[in-house]
Design goal:
CATH architecture of the largest domain: 3-Layer(aba) Sandwich
Strand order of the largest sheet: 5-4-6-7-9-8
Helix content: 25-40%
Radius of gyration: 20 Å
Bound molecules: thiamine diphosphate
CATH topology of the largest domain: Rossmann fold
Distance between the termini: 31 Å
Order of helices and strands: HEHEEHHHEHEHEHEHHEHEHEE
Largest sheet: 6 strands, parallel
CATH class of the largest domain: Alpha Beta
Number of strands: 11
Number of domains: 2
């Protein structure tokens, strides 16, 4: 969808605004899988949803949609063309505001943005924060193949899946966190025999970065680290040596482009979980502060 430049893509960011309830639609027509964005799903949870589906598929895990089996193109041709143009114009403005601030992204989000801008045929993206950062940073009109193992959002088997899904490409990358990387690290054995250029970009924030966004982040620090953060202090250069892969540790997010261009097989981006949450929140707040009923304040 995001290949088209009239698509709204930045909803996860602007729906952090305290005004979101004022923009709730009367109904939603959904094609395809449930959205990744938790904010979008929460915003729409009480809104009637019509899901257009092919027979035999199952894309309503929360069992809330009115499912209409049928052909999506035929359906679109029959729906009423009237819509709330003012609301849509407001959303377009929100998109422009969000897009204009993307160069100010830092850390893991900036890395993701630079990776998406690199000359890649396909990106395989792991669950946890990588798929969320892709959802946040991928802009309308960007033409890149993004593939993920969404399923039950597992962090298992990601490297194997990525190698399989990118087998037919000349230049592909996997974006993955350090825990998911560790989970399937024996698949590194297959990287050398991959027919094209395949780079694994590991966001190494020493544990599960996603949990620092959740309410349990406020429990006692040591208990949080033991139960949720689960740092492993991986030596990624050691993995590269063990499996005979080229390796580079990035200094800056933008350095990923040259590393991909050079075909480095294991690329490490060092990060910090606490800083990452703070940076995400600072960036989101810098945008939502500017959204007051659709006008820049
Ligand atoms: C097989 C499996 N085990 C456990 C989980 C629970 N889980 C979800 S995200 C996550 C942490 C992932 O850490 P990492 O891959 O380093 O990514 P980050 O959160 O830092 O982005 C875990 C353990 C899961 N989704 N799948």
């Amino acid at each position: 969808m995001r290949r088209f430049d009239h698509v709204l893509t930045n909803y996860d960011t602007w729906l952090a605004s305290e005004h979101r309830a004022e923009w709730t639609p009367d109904a939603v027509v959904r094609f395809g899988a449930a959205p990744v964005s938790k904010r979008l799903n929460q915003w729409l949870q009480d809104v009637p949803c019509i899901l257009i589906e092919q027979p035999g598929s199952f894309r309503d895990p929360s069992n809330q949609a009115t499912v209409v089996y049928g052909d999506a193109i035929d359906y679109v041709a029959t729906i009423n063309k009237s819509y709330d143009a003012d609301l849509f114009k407001r959303f377009v403005l929100f998109e422009q505001i969000t897009e204009s601030t993307k160069p100010a992204l830092s850390g893991e989000s900036a890395l993701t943005r630079h990776l998406l801008a690199s000359r890649l045929e396909r990106i395989f993206v792991s669950n946890s924060m990588p798929i969320r950062d892709i959802d946040t940073t991928l802009s309308a009109g960007q033409s890149i193949d993004v593939v993920a193992n969404r399923g039950a959002n597992g962090i298992d088997g990601i490297i194997s899946s990525a190698l399989g899904a990118c087998h037919d490409t000349d230049k592909a990358a996997l974006l993955i966190g350090d825990l998911a990387f560790y989970h399937d690290s024996n698949a590194l054995q297959l990287v050398k025999s991959h027919p094209g250029s395949f780079s694994i970009v590991v966001v190494n924030n020493d544990g599960g970065g996603i949990f620092s966004f959740l309410p349990q982040a406020s429990i006692a620090p040591q208990m949080f680290e033991d139960l949720f953060g689960t740092p492993l202090q991986l030596n990624l250069r050691g993995f590269a040596d063990t499996y005979g892969l080229s390796y580079q540790r990035l200094e800056q997010p933008e350095d990923v482009t040259a590393a991909i261009e050079a075909g480095i097989q294991l690329i490490e981006f060092p990060s910090d979980r606490v800083t990452n949450v703070a940076e995400h929140r600072r960036w989101t707040a810098s945008i939502t502060d500017r959204l007051t009923m659709g006008n820049e304040s």
